[in-house]
Amino acid sequence: METDDGIRLWTARTGDGEPVVFCHGGPGLWDMMADVAASPSGAATVCRWDQRGCGRSPRQGPYSVARTMADLDAVLAHFGWDRVALLGHSWGAQLALRYTLAHPERVTKLVYVSGTGIDDDSTWHAAYQRNLRDALGGRLPRWEALRDRDRTAEEDREYCVLQWSADFADRERALEHAEAMADPWFDVNFECNAALNRERSPGLRDQCETLKVPTLIVDGTADIRPRWAVDSLERALPVVSRVQLMAGHLPWVEDPTGFHAAVSGFLAST
């Protein structure tokens, strides 16, 4: 599909029913939620897309939250959808929330998966860094060595796989799960990541307190991003439910049954 400024974005559409648009994590990564899309596709039309500059979409900016929200608007327009449900993971959860706050009339339901809440990053990022290092364990020295030098393309992939291995509760299978995230591999857009992470979003709490769109928060209790960072979002939203699973940052990988039951049940509810 093509955006209003002429950038072509990769999209995939499956299933039949009410539309659900996925927003992948990152920023700077690509859609890794094919397995998630397979579950509700019997009762929903699922749209996945690679955000601007990411994955199978071309490396063209500009990169900003406002521009990414405009691209999401273009995805809806491309498929002719006036109203959709949104499912966002990690950074994509923040994107889906921001879009819902800006356009509540266009969103029927919001599924907020493994996001980091509405407080400033400074309130939780130090705890995240400690948890990351603890979770890496014996892989920490190699991760630090790769982090602190100019990397080859192959080392970029190794660095990311090592970091992603910390995102799983099952330490014995963590590296296996992280390798699966990197297959296929499309290269991380670190420029996009830096640009979007520099942006701040003050005033979200007041907006959340008046949001009437039904919201489901799903997170893993073993996510290395502190789950208490999401508590303020849960308290602020007037129409919200929350499901916490025994999993890490990608709960559909480690508890697929619990994840799909929570999301499918929420999307099917009236």
Automatic annotation (TrEMBL):
GO terms for molecular function: hydrolase activity. Keywords: Hydrolase. Residues 19-136 form the AB hydrolase-1 domain. This is Alpha/beta fold hydrolase. Signal peptide: none annotated. Belongs to the peptidase S33 family. The lineage of its organism: Bacteria, Bacillati, Actinomycetota, Actinomycetes, Pseudonocardiales.
